[in-house]
Amino acid sequence: xxxxxxxxxxxxxxxxxxxxxxxxxxxxxxxxxxxxxxxxxxxxxxxxxxxxxxxxxxxxxxxxxxxxxxxxxxxxxxxxxxxxxxxxxxxxxxxxxxxxxxxxxxxxxxxxxxxxxxxxxxxxxxxxxxxxxxxxx
Length: 137
What we know:
Layout: H1 2-8, H2 12-17, E1 25-28, H3 40-46, E2 53-58, H4 64-72, E3 79-83, H5 95-100, H6 102-112, E4 116-118, H7 122-131
Parallel strand pairs: 1-2, 2-3, 3-4
């Protein structure tokens, strides 16, 4: 939050008022992440402004459950954006793996509570979501 406020300068007032949409991207389990060794729950509690969505990036599946639970219990029920472009940010449940086994990868994220999936394989993801009846998740 502090780093973003510093980077966006004068525009940050529009973020704080809700005039501009802003989605924090939080790397969990990676050195130098904004949690500074804390938990997502602690970060959400300390953040002065609550946002409607967060992109959470995970280097492994070990902290996914804890972090998603914290996000689901946050005020305003923010949406969870996951990026499945690479293993290093998708808890090893990436697009490439999803092309071979969509249930074990994109489906895994749906089961975890993802409400938005960023993918380089949009057509394939849409086919998968439609087949699962989850196109409008």
